[in-house]
Amino acid sequence: MSYKGIRDLYNDLNLAVSKVDGLNQFYMLDESEVNKLRNINYPVCISSIPNSSVSNINRAYEEYSMTLLILKKSSRLSSDYTELSLYDDCMDLFSSLSDEIMGQRNGALIIQEDSFEIERVSKLGNDLATGIRVNFTLLAPSLLAFESIVADDWTLNTNLFALFNGSLGVNRSNDSLSWTSQLPSGSPKTITHYNENNIPEYSPPRFTFSLPQTTPNEGFRIENVTFSTANWSIFFKMSVASVTQTDTQVLLRITDPSSGDGFIFGLGTHSGSTDSQQAQDGRPFYQIDDDNDSGNEIDVNSASAIYETSADLEPLSETVVGIVNDSTNNKLHLYVGVGNAQTSYEESGSHSNQFSQAKILIGTSELVDPLGYRGFLGTISHIAIYDAALSEAQASTVSNDLNSLF
What we know:
The protein is mostly beta strands. It contains five helices and 24 strands. The chain has helices at 6-18, 83-103, 143-146, 275-278, 392-404, and strands at 25-28, 44-47, 51-53, 61-73, 110-111, 117-124, 129-141, 160-165, 170-172, 177-180, 190-193, 201-203, 206-209, 220-225, 232-240, 249-255, 262-267, 284-289, 305-308, 316-326, 331-336, 343-348, 358-362, 378-386. The chain starts with 5 loop residues before the first helix and ends with a helix.
């Protein structure tokens, strides 16, 4: 569960509206501002900016006084026009909308059933819209209960490049994404969408990647990443779906535009019918390009170094996966799991050059290259990035803390 501010409620409602067939647009503004809108695509949902109160801090819920307008445009040119039919249509739309709000929030939002007040409205605004006004109380987890959960409890801050908490700092719409890191507090980083046409579904704290075969894929992007050495570590709280794939999945790709260097971490797939071929599905691999020239050999099978691990991550229930590039000792480490259940895998070889002003892509390979790389199929809820190669003990600490985030 995560706290909800007004911006988060806006995102929740906007996403819910997009899933209701026939409900075309969403706005959050004062009702008096309706006439200032232009080119409204009816039917429309308009939410007044809500007021909130906390009646009992021990409940950890904030009470939002919500007012929603569900409107259709009147048209007396229609032979079947009646105001009653418009009211009924708007009631049906609101019923579907309330189901979507509750259904995709995983119980984080609660509507007080006895708080509903519904009234009919007609000839509203310049468009003479008809519909319903619904007043109700929405309970949402309060910032007062959750604001210090990471800042006070995150253990390993040394060399922390960015901590992204899936419950905080997310601003998602149908065609954009901005996710701001919670730590370090003095130097926040930002994740944005890879492509505006494919934004991963978001139900706090999880992002769901479900379009691995599309071009471009769903994905995250972090720009201008510079590490102080060639050592770095990236940890994800994630799951991997069990679905037949015809192309290799990519979870992580780092590219350096100045040198052409690159690094890929993904999950292999084999379409053969034998047991040994099928056993390759879900086997993690690293692909490395660090030959100090400007060519991007990471996209060419014969010129790239590939290391396959003996792990199997497909399917994978939600847990923590960590990738550690230890250039100092020329090792790659993979950590899977939390606490006593954490398993470590070590490979000889590493990416040996420092990344400077690099780009990190998560969940997508950017290009469908000759190796058939496609997007990721699963969920990601939290990400921790370190400007250092973490030890096994440090990896265990980060995994435990990441797993403990709401």
